[in-house]
Amino acid sequence: MSGRYVIEPNDVLLVVDIQNDFCPGGALPVPEGDAIVPILNRVAQGFANVVLAQDWHPRSHISFASAHPGCKPFQTVEVAYGSQTLWPDHCVQGRPGADFHPALEIPQTALILRKGLHQDIDSYSAFKENDRKTATGLAGYLRERGLTRIFIAGLAYDFCVRYSAEDAKTGGFDVVIVEDACRGLDIDGSMTRTKEALFAFGCANTISEDIIVQ
Questions:
Q1: CA–centroid distance for 83 within its chain
Q2: Which pTM does this prediction carry?
Q3: Sign of CA dihedral 63, 67, 68, 74
């Protein structure tokens, strides 16, 4: 389900977590995470509707290994809503690591959607937090504006991009992944699992050069 797409008035570009901590030199770097910034800047020029998702955690967030004595990053623990991968402290509210990459330039962005704000719930998806109950409000925003097809790009492909795409599709939106504008962590085969999952959900994919401005 890949191909060329002409940008329509009901399309939106969702840019996921292009933040300093997810880029080389950050607390939780995605390999080559900064390499997609020029691609995103170029692609975004064709979209009138753009949303930026931003990880925005309080200190001692439940997803931080440092909040669980004796645990290390990338371990899995059980919390109230199920299994939770533990991460290095990252994207802490108000700290430079939580800022968008300085080279990201999308001035027409209409909404910055902050996620992972709650102390005791992580949030990979831009639509629902990891308890699978707490909504971020993004779906309602998009529906009220009549935006029905979402092009998704960003970091990390196998976590926040994946779960944002799955929740968007489940919520009734058409979803297109801009593959060359994504990078992943690939933890224990998570990239392969993500490709399989997104295909099963019916998400389409494309590359930036195949997105056509009317």
A1: 19
A2: 0.96
A3: positive
Kindly state the tokens that stand for 115. 């996620």
If 0-12 CB within 10 Å is exposed, 13-18 middle and 19+ buried, where does residue 163 land? buried
Give the residue from 113, 135, 55 showing the smallest Cα distance to 89: 55
Per-residue confidence (pLDDT) for residue 1, from 0 to 100: 56
Q: What is the pLDDT of residues 94-114, one digit of tens each?
A: 999 999 999 999 999 999 999
Helix (H) or strand (E) holding 205: strand 204-206
Helix or strand (DSSP H, E) at 175: strand 174-183
Please name the residue that has the structure tokens 């930036």.
Answer: 208
How far is the C-alpha of 83 from the C-alpha of 86, rounded, in Å? 10
Number of Cβ within 10 Å of residue 85's Cβ equals 17
* Residues recognised as catalytic: 17, 115, 160
Q: b/e per residue, 15-47, with b = 16+ CB within 10 A?
A: bbbbbbbbbeebbbbbeebbebbebbeebbebb
Q: What percent of the chain has pLDDT over 90?
A: 98
DSSP element (H, E) containing 55: strand 50-55
